[in-house]
Amino acid sequence: MATSEKARPIPAGLKLTGIDLNYGFVKALDGVDVEVRPGEVVALLGDNGAGKSTLLKVMSGAHRPSSGTIEVGGEVTEFRSPRDASAAGIEMVYQDLALIDAADIATNLTLGREPVRKGLLGWLGILDKKGMRREARKELEALRVTTAPVTRPVEMLSGGQRQVVALARSAVRVTSRGQGALLLDEPTAALGYAQTRQVEDLIRRMAERGIAVVVVTHNLPLCFAVADRIVVLNRGRKVADIPTVDTDNDAVVGWITGARAPQPGLERALL
């Protein structure tokens, strides 16, 4: 490993304990515990209405839990908004990707942290376009991403290339803060086979850099291809939390549908 890689800060992970979320008399989440460690990919699975998207919104600061604790980098914290979560190092990649179509790849990758020109031009807020492109190339090379030239507008990219740009942007933000996690909501939902493989490779490379990754997906092949651990929710309760190598497709489907009993030790979650 190169010296620069050794010096790179390793983002600390994310831990949620006893998370409850109530909508009036409806309990959307019931005592959910989830942890994702640095360099680990956790697949968060469940049927529609199981609570996985709700839990992702708690992680990202979009919803505040009724009770429970959230820890980032070993420190208990509270998110009052997605901005608080982002400041703590929690980055969310939504299905719509939130990219600026008319802007080029370099602009999208450095969005919110654009370098400015030196001297008076910088004082006037003039952006350093060459610096932005140089930084974008450096970030893509660090993730070993081969995509279009950084000067190409996002609106000219394929679905897979757009997803890669969104993932790379969020990965860089997490790494720069030195803590947190990357949250992915159905990252391959609209992609073909080749594009899905490209995204799978990038997810694993992000984990290799020490980033904690949570993936919400209905795509079980993706889950088994990239995840180190699988967490299954059913009716807002955790019914499985198991290393991927210790389970199989049939067991996971059983937990998702409710046809299989919860893992030993998690039975009380259904009382």
From TrEMBL:
GO molecular function per UniProt: ATP binding; ATP hydrolysis activity
Residues annotated as domain ABC transporter: 14-260
Signal peptide start and end residues: none
Keywords: ATP-binding, Nucleotide-binding
SMART domains: AAA
Database matches in InterPro entries: AAA+_ATPase (IPR003593), ABC_carbohydrate_import_ATPase (IPR050107), ABC_transporter-like_ATP-bd (IPR003439), ABC_transporter-like_CS (IPR017871), P-loop_NTPase (IPR027417)
Source domain of life: Bacteria
Name this protein carries in UniProt: Fructose transport system ATP-binding protein
Organism the protein comes from: Microbacterium pygmaeum
